[in-house]
Specification:
Blueprint: H1 4-27, H2 31-64, H3 70-93, H4 97-129, H5 132-144
Helix pairs in contact: 1-2, 1-4, 1-5, 2-3, 2-4, 2-5, 3-4
Bound molecules: fe (ii) ion (FE2) (2 copies).
One fe (ii) ion binds next to helix 2, helix 3 and helix 4.
């Protein structure tokens, strides 16, 4: 059996890999490839956010009664990242490599900080608060669609 922490941390790494490929394509001036990879990255990240916002966070909030704590902060950060994802997509569409790469760098710093907070603080809290087996099934159901 895998913990929530393990499964979700693994998914962060998977998203990072797609990001790296997209960034490389932008750097090479391959805007068609970059647009496809960026779209793929956005889809994967959105699935990850949705899993957190619709399954894990509400489960944690009802199990602990903690509504305005770390989950609220993470939801806010997801909104900010969604805006950054959209803005980068439009820079890629306009073939503005320098602009896209500059924004990518800011996004990556933001994502790494967000992921670190989840991996070091929130996911261990989720592991403690939520029914492990049931969560594993639900996470795998969503993530299985990605393969
Ligand atoms: Fe998150
Ligand atoms: Fe996450």
């Amino acid at each position: 059996m895998s913990s929530i922490s393990e499964l979700m941390t693994h998914d962060h790494r998977r998203c990072d890999e797609i990001y790296a490929n997209a960034e490389e394509a932008i750097g090479q001036g391959d805007f068609g490839g970059a647009a496809n990879l960026w779209k793929e990255f956005c889809v994967q990240v959105e699935q990850h956010f949705t899993l957190e916002e619709q399954v894990l966070f509400p489960g944690f909030e009802s199990a602990t009664g903690m509504q305005g704590g770390p989950t609220m902060m993470m939801r806010g950060e997801h909104l900010q990242m969604r805006e950054m994802l959209k803005s980068i997509a439009s820079s890629i569409a306009q073939k503005e490599a320098d602009d896209a790469l500059g924004q990518c760098e800011s996004l990556m710093i933001f994502i790494q900080q967000h992921n670190m907070k989840e991996e070091q603080v929130l996911y261990p809290m989720l592991d403690d608060a939520l029914p492990q087996q049931e969560m594993e099934l639900q996470i795998n159901e969503v993530l299985a669609e990605k393969v």
